[in-house]
Each structure stands twice: as structure tokens, then as C-alpha cells.
Amino acid sequence: MTNTRWGLLGAGWIATKAIAPAMHAASDTIVQAVASRDSARSRALNPVTIHESYEALINDPLVDAVYISLPNHLHCQWSVAALKAGKHVLCEKPFAINSSEVELMAKAARENDRVLVEAVWSRWHPRMARLIEYVKAGNIGKLHSIESSFTFPANIAGNYRLSPAMGGGALFDVGVYPLHAMAALVGDNAQMEIQKCDVTMGPTGIDLTTTWQLRFAGSITAQGVASFEMPENQSLIVHGEKESVELVGKEAFTSWNSPSQLRLGENIEEFDAVDPYQLMIENFGKKIQGQESWVLPLETSLFVQRALDQLRARF
């Protein structure tokens, strides 16, 4: 397999602690270039090349694919620019600020025949994949309800997550994880209606906590909560007519380099420690090389973004 040469836009926490290490550990993968506002942070990611601007990176002929970890309001702009420059794009979640932006990104991917994927890394975890496969195979019977949460007391002073204009707020930051799990379980063509949405707004105008109840396909109830102020917890429990399944523990979506457990009815399955970031990077690389792999479909990302739009309309 030919190596995938990556360019990273942004050298913040996610790129420094998760993405660059995963790329360096991944097979057939090279960190070719980095561009950020801080050249020292760029150098710390150990790329082959450091670029002084995002434009220079996306136009680097030695870069095959671009990972975008910029603030949320810049995702669409730089995804489209990279796609038009002929690069494949793996973009941090949330994909964009609204579904219109996601549609623009998808259009650019189609027109330039490039791969565009939202980096919801939890979807590549074998435990999550097993839960989804088990439910969709009908093992729990008819799907009745989903309960999910991602909450933690955030220390985000001075962070873009406090800015509405930059796509801040708990729903955008961590609510996408429960919503993506819901989308995977009900299908991205399921009809959705909002039954309830309660929001606690912070002084800067972002949601500190959003709690919702949705109904999919007329019969499936899905409850979720995303919070920057509640005690730390992550959960995903799926109820069917025969039994329920659950991601065991308080890291339903961020199990990373640690063993994990999945409850299927009365049985517990054990999963070895894995790096879902590395699995995501390797699968994306195989995809753009034309090899068999799984990546998150654009249709699913658009479904989730539309759900975000409808929930945010209730703020």
C-alpha cells in the first residue's frame, strides 16, 4: 500500500495529544506537513514540513489528505478549500455550523472526486461497532428506546467553545457523540421529531447544558444530554423488546487506549485497549487508496447536522 501523506491544519490539543501520535503509530501513514498559528507547536508534531499558512499546506503537492482541527466555524471554509485543492479531508466534529455548510462541503467533495469524512472517532471503536451491529441484526428485538449522555464540568475559560460565533456550546462539542450513536442505530433516513428540548444558557450565549428527547420513525424514543456543567459521565443504553445493551462504564464515547466492556443482555463482552484515532486514520487511508475499509458516511453526518440544526432552533 502507498503511504498516505497527511497535512494537519491546526496544532491544538486534539492534534497534539491524539491525531499526530495516532498518525505516527499508524501503518502506511506519514505526517507530511503541519500549519498552525504557533510554529513551535507545529514542530512538536514532528512533521516532515512546517508551513507558515493554511493556504501553503493545502497547496503542497506532497500532501494527499488534510486533517482539520480548527475551531468549528472554520471547518466548512477550510474543508472546501482543501477539497478544491485536490486533497482528501478528514474534519473534526462537529462537521460544520449548520447543514447548509455540510451540503457545501459534500458538493465540493463530489465535484473534486475527493473523500470527505467527519472525524467522529468513537464510531471506529470495536466496542461501538459491535453494539451497533448487534442491535441492527435484530438481536434485541424491535428497537424501543435509546438513552445517552456526555457530560463533564468543563474548564474552558478563554476557549472558542465559549463563543457562539465560533460554534461553541455543549451540544456542538459533545452532543454530537450521542446523536451519532442514535443515527447509527435508527438509520440516517429515519424520520425525526423533537418531543422536548431544554437548554441552560451561559453568560457568553452558548448552551452549557442541552437535554433532549427525540422520536425516530414514529416509535423509537431517544433521550440525550450534553453538558459543560454536570458531573463527568458518558453513557449509551439501548432498549429493545427482548433485551437491552449498554456500553459499560463512564467512557461510552471516549474509551481510548484502555480495556472496555459491552453488556449484551445478561452477557458481558471484553474489549482490549485500542486507539480509535489510529483505526480512523488507517481506515481513511485505505479508503483513499481504494482498499476495503469503513468510514463514516456523509449521509450520516448530514443527518446529524440537521438534527443539530433543529435542536439549536429551540435555543
Tell me the name of the CATH class of the largest domain: Alpha Beta
Task: Indicate the mean pLDDT.
Answer: 97
The ordered string of helix (H) and strand (E) elements is EHEHEHEHEHEHEHEEEEEEEHH
Q: Would you give the CATH topology of the largest domain? A: Dihydrodipicolinate Reductase, domain 2
Strands across the major sheet, in which order?
Answer: 8-9-10-7-11-12-13-14
Structural summary, described in words:
This is Dehydrogenase. Belongs to the Gfo/Idh/MocA family. Residues 130-245 form the GFO/IDH/MocA-like oxidoreductase domain. The structure is a single chain. This protein is of the alpha/beta class. It is built from 9 helices and 14 strands. It folds into 2 domains: 4-119, Rossmann fold; 123-274, Dihydrodipicolinate Reductase, domain 2 (2-Layer Sandwich). It has helices at residues 13-25, 39-44, 54-58, 75-84, 99-111, 126-136, 170-186, 276-288, 298-312, and strands spanning 4-9, 29-35, 49-51, 65-68, 88-92, 116-119, 143-151, 192-201, 207-216, 220-227, 233-240, 244-248, 260-264, 267-271. The strands form 2 sheets. The chain has an 8-stranded mixed beta sheet with strand order 8-9-10-7-11-12-13-14, covered by helices on one side. Strands 3-2-1-4-5-6 form a 6-stranded parallel beta sheet, with helices on both faces. Strand 1 (4-9), helix 1 and strand 2 form a beta-alpha-beta unit. Helix 6 (126-136) packs across helix 7 (170-186). The mean pLDDT is 97.
